[in-house]
Amino acid sequence: MAIIGLIVNPVAGLGGRAGLKGSDGIEIQQQALALGARPQAGERAERALRELLPLADTLTVMTYPGEMGEDAARAVGFTPQVIGHIEPGHTTAADTRRAAREMRDAGVELLMFAGGDGTARDVYAAIDETLPVVGIPAGVKIHSAVYAVSPEAAGRLARDYLLGRTRDVILAEVMDIDEDAFRQGRVSARLYGYLRTPFGLRLLQGMKAASGVSEAAAQEAIAEEVVDRLKPGVLYVVGPGTTTRAIFQQLGLPKTLLGVDVMKDKQLVAQDVNARQLEALVADAPQVFIIVTPIGGQGFLFGRGNQQISPPVLRRVGKQGLIVVATRTKIHGLGGRPLLVDSGDPQVDALFEGYIQVITGWREAIVYPIKGAG
Amino acid sequence: MPPSLPPEPRRFHQARWDEPIIFELSHPGQRGLLPPRPEPEVLDQVGSPQDLIPPALRRDQPPALPELSQPQVLRHYLRLSQETLGTDLIIDAGQGTCTMKYSPKVNERLARDPAFTELHPLQDEATVQGILEILYRFEQILKAISGMDRFSLQPQAGSAAIYTNASIVRAYHADRGESHRDEIITTLFSHPSDAAAAVAAGYKAIILYPDPETGYPSVEALEAAVSERTAALFITNPEDTGIFNPHIATFTRIVHEAGGLCVYDQANANGILGITRAREAGFDLCHFNLHKTFSSPHGSGGPGAGAVGATEALAPYLPVPLVDFDGQRYFLDFDRPKSIGKVAMWYGNVGVVLRAFAWAMSMGAEGMRQVAEIAVLNNNYLLEQINRIRGVEVPFAAGHRRIEQVRYSWERLARETDVHTQDLGRRAGDFGVQYWLSHHPWYVPEPVTLEPTESYTREELDEYAAILARVAAEAYEDPEWVRSAPHRGPIHRIDPSVLDDPNRWAVTWRAYLRKRDQWPSSDSSSTR
């Protein structure tokens, strides 16, 4: 009998329909309810759970009381194992974190959670990479790649994982934007970390089960190519992500998964730099290249999760000094949409528009468009 | 099945024999043929037959071949043949990009004629003037079709021809002191061998992605790709989507201006035969798969032939020998100092060339153009039929017709039913047809690529469309029935993950015996 965990963030998505650009904070939630918003995270969790009904005989759903999962599980016909306590109508982020920890400690095989970027952050804070998870998209803000494309897709991904049809587990980004800044028209996104999630190629893009190349192998091939191209004396500014991390692994260097590191002559120059440190390093260097991979499911090269690489640095390096790396799967996940640059300075964004070569493997690159986010 | 479904187009059921591997049928001592022992007088004169083989060539142990009698061998292979679906048996419009057309049986008779099969490649040229004339005259036909100046018929497959072209590109640039050119540009919907052969030949592959609207790469994308490192452009047109890039002459001009060569992958030329030519589009090199457009059997792994064509400037690099004619006799020309050398044993698959020559002569120039016209008509007729099916989409270039094939997408059906393209293909097999998905990676989600060549009647195209309409309707009415297909096939389903695991591959009996004990005994995901 397999056990899966289910956490519903009942307030996720409240702010969206009310045009409030997020649901973080009690005040916003009450404002949304006053504007007539109706909770929908539970209903979206039900849609995902319905995909798991064929496994009902061999599956136990462990969840939190009432609106945090019990209601959704019962609504589709599961008899859930309910743990923990909540104050109905007043659940908080702390409840999400506690629930995730308790379910992990109780030995669930997979954790499903319905929410938005804030929920993903809470789950990440509680369990880090210790447990595979599947995100059911229910929030206003979905920048985190840990979420499936729809509730049904999330349910099928969980089902395929439990049946052993999906074996690959990857690290998917947990991103969030500052809602206050967002409401004032500024987008300030941060990369908070990575959660482990089954790699559902079919649900991402409709590929067959046996693609021949795992994501990890594809990243290694990219790293081989980048290492082949490294030039002596050049300062390399290397952005966050698992694809760029593979390059450092090839060189035997430590990589800050969430941060920007600087390298020269295959040696580490600086780790996890901030914008000011980076600007100083770049100012002194005769030649500078930037190596980045698109962050999240939306194809941002700059401005999401790597704001340390600031407009002055981007202006100095320019498009001719930009090395973009990405697996073919990640590119195909964009569905033909361009790569995006949102540096905060539209003039700098414009410098990067047009086509660029993206390294996708050993001796392999693709030509793909970049657009400014504005 | 609910009554709302369209009727079953055909009550097909394939044979299922559970036939063992031939080695498993072997019994020591069983024989298909018992040759008489040599008579004592013969033994006295020439000694034991074994002693006629020089000791260095003799095996210590006899080969471990299966031992069976003739009727067992015959039944074994007839049973296996009943478990296949092939062009001579079914409406093979579903094997897109492969140009599955009728291979006239009279051409097989010619290829089996002892006048051909008893030839030896080491025979004196004076004694093989007939076959040399055929090779020479077929080259003239290909020159007229493509506008190229010389052809080599030596490469034995399409990918071998692409690799040959990559080798010619390398020799050409080396000759001019430009070996720094290490990039070959291709497109996402060109055949993947264009990128793969380039990489195998030591190049980097730069792949242009299609414009989401038109389906083919923009001129700007190409401009971003060319540089002083560009060795060549390798491109298919129409691409595997069946969409023709109308800016192809601009593409070749841009690449030429950057100092690169332009190579046309015409493996499948079925939609443009006699209509457009490589020369006018500005190409320096091209190739044709004789086992596609020119009707020699496709063969699934051989024998094939990839005829490579070159302009005057590139002709010196073609493989040796070329077949020439001095006005009196045909001869093999090995005296070509700039040649890249040989790319196959002897002169390639001459039997394939013979069939293609016979086909081309029976068609004539007008007939070959008609082939393309009917193939395009058939494709657009089928497109109209398929497009009416619920759940199907035709990505890119909305509202525009296609050339010789179409890459469709079942993304909508998959989203609405959780039935996927592989499921639909397996269920289509229950009605006696097959269909092919797409090369990898799948840029078109849930793809299927259909190419109804000139060889199918309107009734057959209607039947093929009716089968897909039925299968798609079943996906909506009873998805589990489609997901659990095939129901009438010779085997159930194969776990595709074995393709990722070399420990589960065995192409010889010896490898099978060595590996089988390491395989997990119960694999729950392999069948269901």
CATH T-level fold name of the domain at 111-361 in chain B: Aspartate Aminotransferase, domain 2
DSSP E strands of chain A, number = 16
Q: Give the strand order, joined by hyphens, for the main sheet of chain B.
A: 1-7-6-5-4-2-3
Q: Which structural class do you get from the secondary structure elements of chain A?
A: alpha/beta
Q: CATH homologous superfamily of the domain at 111-361 in chain B?
A: Type I PLP-dependent aspartate aminotransferase-like (Major domain)
Compute the average pLDDT of chain A.
Answer: 87
Indicate the radius of gyration of chain B in whole angstroms.
26 Å
CATH superfamily of the largest domain in chain A: Probable inorganic polyphosphate/atp-NAD kinase, domain 1
The biggest beta sheet of chain A is recorded as: 9 strands, mixed
Major sheet attributes of chain B: 7 strands, mixed
Low-confidence region ranges of chain A: 202-212
The number of helical runs of chain B is 15
The CATH top-level class label of the domain at 111-361 in chain B: Alpha Beta
**Chain pair forming the biggest interface:** A-B, 34 and 40 residues
Supply the number of structural domains of chain A: 2
Count of alpha and pi helical runs of chain A: 15
Helix content of chain A: 25-40%
Distance between the termini of chain B: 21 Å
Shape of chain B: globular
* Architecture per CATH nomenclature, i.e. the level-2 architecture of the domain at 111-361 in chain B: 3-Layer(aba) Sandwich
What's the shape of chain A? Answer: globular
Overall description:
The complex is a heterodimer of chains A (374) and B (528). With 374 residues, chain A is α/β, with parallel strands linked by helices. Chain A folds into 2 domains: 2-204, 3-Layer(aba) Sandwich (Rossmann fold), CATH 3.40.50.10330; 215-372, Rossmann fold, CATH 3.40.50. Chain A has helices spanning 14-17, 26-34, 41-50, 70-76, 93-105, 117-127, 151-162, 179-183, 201-204, 215-229, 242-251, 275-284, 311-317, 328-333, 346-351; strands at 2-8, 59-63, 81-82, 110-115, 133-137, 169-177, 189-198, 235-238, 261-264, 267-270, 288-292, 300-302, 322-325, 339-341, 354-361, 364-372. In chain A, helix 4 links the parallel strand 2 and strand 3. In chain A, helix 5 (93-105) crosses helix 6. By secondary structure, chain B is an alpha/beta fold. Among the domains of chain B are: 22-82, no CATH class; 111-361, Type I PLP-dependent aspartate aminotransferase-like (Major domain) (Aspartate Aminotransferase, domain 2); 502-528, no CATH class. Chain B is built from 15 helices and 11 strands. Chain B has a 7-stranded mixed β-sheet with strand order 1-7-6-5-4-2-3, sandwiched between helices. Chain B has a two-stranded antiparallel ribbon with strand order 8-9. Chain B is globular and about 85 Å long. The relative contact order of chain B is 0.14. The chains are: A alpha/beta (374), B alpha/beta (528). Chains A and B meet through helix 14, strand 15 and strand 16 of A and strand 3 and helix 8 of B.
